[in-house]
């Protein structure tokens, strides 16, 4: 590769090219991390990595009689909903001052989701709001009034199949570097 007359120059140039390639790779990796770090949506929960038990499987936050929404979501069981359910149900009981007294979240069938909305109990001075939603772990928030105590379903058709994914920038940089050297 290098002739005996230009060995020193050739080795120096190879080291310089290698250092440049490593520096460019690090810049690509850093720039990709910077570009995506500010776009994180903490409500956008990724689908689980474990295999689904049946087509169109989903999970919901699940708890029974929790004292607040944070602890309900934090300690929710991580298990697949049964096949006879299609939605996530949230039942929120709270006082006239807005203090939560009981939160229940679970997987639900369509018949359990017919009674969404808020109802005020005159005897106990408590309000119960119920909401249902469709989608993977969609029941993050609590229903607190008639605006958000709804039956929310997706109108897009679900399809099973693979979607093509674009390789990440670091992978492309590594391939380029390997081809270059």
TrEMBL record:
PANTHER family per the UniProt record, alphabetical: LY6/PLAUR DOMAIN-CONTAINING PROTEIN 6, LY6_PLAUR DOMAIN-CONTAINING PROTEIN 6B
Stretches assigned to coiled coil: none
Extent of the signal sequence: 1-37
Protein name: LY6/PLAUR domain containing 6B
Membrane-spanning segments: none
An annotated Gene Ontology molecular function: acetylcholine receptor regulator activity
Membrane topology: Lipid-anchor; GPI-anchor
Subcellular location: Cell membrane
Primary location: membrane
Keyword annotations from UniProtKB, A to Z: Cell membrane, Disulfide bond, Glycoprotein, GPI-anchor, Lipoprotein, Membrane, Signal
Keyword Transferase: no
GO cellular component, one term: plasma membrane
The keyword Ubl conjugation is annotated on this UniProt entry: no
